[in-house]
Design goal:
two-stranded antiparallel sheet; nine-stranded mixed β-sheet
């Protein structure tokens, strides 16, 4: 059976320190590289992220099906000394991230059959991750992103029951578990769902959906969490793989 083309999408900001590891993991992917396209959108970096990726493009284009890089600044910066999870900036940060994902998606998606959203700050994932995700035959899949194997989930944007249950709570339910929301550390999406309009809401979405969290002051869900609610409204199910663990760098 022919192997379907896959598009790996990575939005980046101030990612220069992680790029060596990111590209090392990419090189180790066992799926045929000539079936993989790679695209980046860099925004608002204060380091050398754009130049570093640009310098790698000629080599990437030789090894992979396609490799592209775009720049789109949104003018968003977290105040000095504050972590990216600082509560006062979360609405603006997640809204900008949603816009950057959508910008990247609309520019990069061509004839690929699958999209793999991949963060730039992952520490480890299996080389055969694409083959594994393909084998599950689900339209939307999210592995369990952790800091340590067997430990609590790091990506808490993947949840169920209005945010009460996260991936680490669902390990005993089996290989595949339904989710109401997903995270973006690693997200597998059938490309036609994106073409049908499944994007990342940059505004609070889903007020009428019973899966939305009651205590969410935004009165809806943003970005990847909004993606999960929108997918449900479109008739799609998001699936989690609580026992397929990938590791995130410590911040």
């Amino acid at each position: 059976m022919p192997k379907p083309p896959v598009l790996i999408l990575t939005p980046v900001k101030n990612a220069a320190k992680n790029l060596e590891l990111y590209f090392g993991l990419l090189e180790n992917i066992s799926y045929p590289h000539k079936k993989i396209s790679i695209a980046f959108l860099e925004s608002d970096s204060s380091d050398t992220t754009y130049a570093d990726i640009e310098a790698r493009l000629p080599g990437l284009k030789k090894k992979f099906r396609r490799a592209t890089l775009w720049k789109k600044d949104f003018g968003f910066h977290i105040p000095n000394g504050q972590p990216r999870y600082w509560e006062p900036v979360q609405y603006a940060r997640r809204s900008v991230l949603a816009r950057s994902r959508n910008q990247l998606l609309f520019r990069a998606l061509m004839d690929e059959e699958w999209v793999l959203w991949l963060d730039s700050d992952l520490l480890e994932y299996p080389p055969d991750i694409i083959e594994t995700l393909l084998s599950k035959e689900k339209d939307i899949l999210h592995p369990n992103c952790v800091l340590d194997y067997g430990g609590p989930s790091f990506d808490l944007n993947a949840w169920r029951d209005k945010g009460k249950l996260h991936m680490h709570d669902l390990r005993t339910e089996g290989e595949l578990v339904p989710l109401d929301s997903v995270g973006g550390t690693m997200l597998w999406v059938k490309a036609d769902l994106h073409r049908d309009g499944l994007i990342f809401p940059a505004f609070p979405y889903g007020l009428e959906n019973p899966r939305v969290r009651y205590d969410n002051l935004w009165k809806g869900e943003l970005e990847t969490e909004g993606f999960g609610i929108l997918a449900n409204d479109m008739g799609y199910t998001c699936w989690g793989l609580p026992n397929l663990e990938i590791r995130h760098l410590r911040e």
